[in-house]
């Protein structure tokens, strides 16, 4: 059967881009209700301090509507942590909407100032009197767990939230006892700042007659935020709030959670009976939005003489920051479950500690624990190869899980349903001309440069956010509208879902419309996270479309006086197969006597098993020993995403994710000094990758359809960020090891760090 135009597998151009590139996008900050007041947040300049606050003089300044402090919001619930351990439940500290008498990180919110204009709000903020008593602060998990370290929370001894084990410690110890050799690494996965293009914003409008709030925010989903804000924070019925998400300029996980400003805008709007608007500036983002990563890990691999992996033991500490953000504790714990990677490791143990520090809270950031896990195991596998004198590809081939072993249950309980891991690694090596690398390295050396080549394989679990419902309806003009609770933050949902409609109805993308991000129009929704939109929402759309098609055939059969089985649907028309007798969607929609319920259909899908996308990243780098500058000269990705819905969208997701990983590998790091001051709080100090820092990607798929997903898809939104960090760092270490026997550089591998490592080597060898 020939592929359907605009259907699954076609590189359909993004239908949402026309408005965006013409400046017709509608983001939260574009929403400007008449007479809206403007809000700012007063934030702590100290990492840890007691304080008293007096806003009486500031409240009397011109244009000031209200100033909220902890006393004004004491009846509110705090921001909740949405994760707990089943076997060892913990009780986390409160996360107040405004700090009450004590702040615990630079940027901690102490007041919410609302005035007629931003300038008047700034004047009032500067007039607030705060008396600070600075307290000792602690930064970095290694420092926080030391005996006698300053305590972030008095009832969290040793600054540890939980200290648990995953896997079988006894079996793992036995594997190490019989090992021929042991490879070991100690690595830092640095903290990063999300830096989506559109900063967070919120506009809250209050209808006094109905005692009703309308909250417009740029987030990753409207329904879950409404539930948390209403039920846990504001303590009001759900029907008292409508949440709308317009266009969203990037999310990467960090816009998924509730934040203080959303509740504060609601309180202020209700108090003033006016609309209140707050838009973060970049400083608000650096100091007020959840940050990502920040793990310190020691990992060991027990090896047989032939390079077979006998066991893996890991000690992982994850930095939570000062408070528990929504999914914060889940990130290191859930990520640890993916540490065995694509390898047949029968004996596994991991100690996981989550640690408080006087820093901005940490939460899900593109990949949410899986990039951290892939970085650990892939750095360790390269170290194991060096330990036993094998090549990086040979040791991987030796230890990959075989396709014949599928479904394969890992030592951490994950069940991989499908995949051919050797195949995508082999293909990546072919594209990169791996065999000829020694010649390229030799030529580079003649130019005074060092070449390195590195592999990284990865697997992640995604599509497990829960139940998603799609409603597909026929409009009066014959177009089709999808109502769904997922939320695009730039991924291209409008196009992807339209292709699923086209697959069954042959309908052009411009005739398919998506409604999302509005709790009044859409009954339920999970939002978007964990690469779940297509594996879960897509299945719901496909099934609802199939059901609607069944309904339309029944209506058309009556109109055309035939059997539904004789009908085919294409291009907005139902036709008797092999004839010219037909009826259009528009005529069906307005046919007299048609039951309106037959013009729409709903379907719900959830996957407890999840999907397991996997693949290979291969990086080749060139290092200038005189400066430490690293240039990526070749980059290949071969992924298994089960089924490709749209190759164009898919490539964009992979390229974007890989660039985020490259940024972390080479330049990105949120740095705090010993007093807890955020040193990298602006773009003058925090480096983001530019186009010139990235390579020209070569991307292919080697898909093996997923057996646990009806569409066969495996989810792709986070994969690029998972495989890229270890590929780049392994390439750097490959070059440094061959030339200088340097086997360790932590991310970010900046020019300075690499230069220092080379100079240290030269100094030692000159003695």
Topology readout:
Elements (H helix, E strand, L loop, with lengths): L16 H5 L15 E7 L5 E6 L1 H4 L4 E5 L33 E2 L5 E7 L2 H10 L1 E6 L6 H4 L15 E8 L1 H9 L3 E12 L8 E7 L4 E6 L5 H12 L6 E4 L15 H13 L3 E4 L2 H7 L3 E12 L5 E13 L8 H7 L10 E10 L13 H19 L3 H8 L8 E2 L5 E2 L4 H11 L5 H10 L3 E10 L8 E7 L5 E5 L8 H13 L6 E4 L17 H28 L6 E4 L2 E4 L5 E3 H5 L10 E6 L8 E10 L6 E11 L6 H20 L30 E5 L17 H22 L10 H16 L1
Parallel strand pairs: 1-12, 10-11, 14-15, 20-21, 27-28
Antiparallel strand pairs: 1-5, 2-4, 2-6, 3-5, 7-15, 8-13, 9-10, 9-12, 13-14, 16-17, 18-26, 19-20, 19-25, 22-23, 23-24, 26-27
Short synopsis of the structure:
The chain is of the alpha+beta class. It has 19 helices and 28 strands.
Spell out the key features of this protein.
767 residues, alpha+beta, Aldehyde Oxidoreductase, domain 4, Aldehyde Oxidoreductase, domain 3, 3 domains, 5-stranded mixed beta sheet
């Amino acid at each position: 059967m020939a592929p359907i135009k605009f259907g699954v597998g076609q590189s359909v151009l993004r239908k949402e881009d026309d408005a965006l590139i013409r400046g017709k996008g509608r983001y939260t900050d574009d929403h400007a209700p008449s007479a809206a007041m403007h809000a700012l947040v007063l934030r702590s300049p100290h990492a840890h301090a007691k304080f008293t606050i007096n806003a009486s003089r500031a409240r009397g300044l011109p244009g000031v509507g209200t100033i909220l402090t902890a006393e004004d919001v004491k009846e509110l619930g705090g921001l909740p942590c949405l994760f707990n351990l089943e076997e060892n439940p913990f009780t986390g500290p409160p996360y107040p909407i405004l700090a009450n008498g004590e702040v615990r990180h630079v940027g901690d919110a102490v007041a919410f100032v609302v005035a007629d204009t931003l300038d008047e709000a700034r004047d009032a903020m500067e007039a607030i009197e705060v008396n600070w008593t600075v307290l000792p602060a602690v930064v970095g998990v290694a420092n926080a767990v030391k005996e006698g370290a300053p305590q972030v929370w008095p009832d969290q001894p040793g600054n540890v939230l939980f200290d648990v084990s995953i896997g079988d410690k006894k079996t793992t110890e036995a594997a190490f006892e019989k090992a021929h050799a042991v490879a070991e690494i100690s690595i830092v996965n640095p903290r990063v700042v999300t830096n989506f293009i559109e900063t967070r914003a919120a506009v809250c409008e209050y209808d006094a007659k109905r005692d009703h709030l309308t909250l417009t925010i740029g987030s990753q989903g409207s329904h879950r935020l409404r539930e948390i804000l209403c039920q846990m924070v504001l303590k009001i019925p759900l029907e008292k709030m409508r949440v709308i998400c317009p266009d969203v300029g990037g999310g990467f996980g960090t816009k998924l959670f509730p934040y203080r400003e959303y509740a504060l805008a609601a309180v202020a709007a209700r108090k003033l009976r006016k609309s209140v608007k707050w838009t973060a500036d970049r400083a608000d983002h650096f100091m007020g939005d959840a940050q990502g990563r920040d793990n310190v890990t020691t990992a060991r691999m027990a090896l047989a003489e032939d390079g077979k992996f006998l066991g893996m033991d890991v000690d992982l500490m994850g930095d939570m920051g000062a408070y528990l953000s929504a999914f914060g504790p889940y990130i290191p714990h859930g990520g640890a479950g993916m540490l065995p990677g694509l390898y047949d490791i029968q004996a596994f143990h991991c100690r996981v500690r989550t640690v408080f520090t006087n820093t901005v809270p940490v939460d899900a950031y593109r990949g949410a624990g899986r990039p951290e896990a892939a970085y650990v195991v892939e750095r360790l596998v390269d170290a194991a190869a060096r330990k036993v004198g094998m090549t990086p590809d040979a040791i991987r081939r030796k230890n990959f899980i075989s396709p014949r072993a599928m479904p394969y249950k890992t030592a951490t309980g994950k069940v991989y349903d499908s995949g051919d891991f050797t195949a995508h690694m082999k293909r990546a090596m072919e594209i990169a001309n791996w065999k000829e690398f020694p010649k390229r390295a030799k030529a580079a050396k003649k130019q005074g440069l060092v070449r390195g080549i590195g592999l990284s394989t990865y697997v992640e679990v995604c599509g497990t956010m829960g139940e998603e419902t799609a409603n597909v309806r026929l409009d009066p003009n014959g177009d089709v509208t999808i109502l769904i609770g997922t939320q695009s933050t730039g991924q291209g949902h409008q196009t992807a879902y339209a292709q699923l409609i086209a697959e069954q109805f042959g309908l052009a993308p411009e005739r398919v419309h998506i409604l999302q991000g509005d709790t009044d129009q859409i009954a339920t929704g999970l939002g978007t996270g964990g690469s779940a939109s297509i594996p879960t929402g897509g299945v719901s759309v496909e099934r609802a479309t199939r059901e609607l098609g069944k309904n339309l055939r029944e209506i058309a059969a009556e109109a055309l006086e035939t059997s539904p089985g004789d009908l085919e649907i294409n291009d907005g028309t139902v036709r008797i197969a092999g004839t010219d007798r037909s009826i259009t969607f528009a005529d069906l929609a307005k046919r007299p006597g048609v039951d309106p319920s037959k013009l729409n259909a709903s379907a719900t899908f959830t996957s407890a098993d999840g999907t397991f996308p996997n693949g290979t990243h291969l990086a080749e780098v060139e290092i200038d020993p005189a400066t430490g500058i690293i240039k990526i000269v070749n980059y290949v990705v071969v992924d298994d995403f089960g089924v490709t819905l749209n190759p164009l969208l898919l490539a964009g997701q992979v390229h974007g994710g890989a660039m985020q990983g490259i940024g972390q590998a080479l330049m990105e790091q949120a740095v705090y000094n010993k007093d807890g001051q955020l040193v990298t709080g602006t773009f003058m100090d925090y480096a983001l990758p530019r186009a010139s820092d990235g390579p020209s990607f070569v991307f292919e798929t080697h898909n093996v359809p997923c057996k646990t997903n009806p569409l066969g898809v495996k989810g792709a939104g986070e994969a690029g960020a998972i495989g890229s960090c270890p590929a780049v760092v392994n390439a750097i270490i490959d070059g440094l090891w061959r030339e200088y026997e340097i086997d360790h550089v932590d991310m970010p591998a900046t020019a300075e760090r690499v230069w220092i490592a080379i100079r240290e080597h030269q100094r030692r060898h000159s003695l």
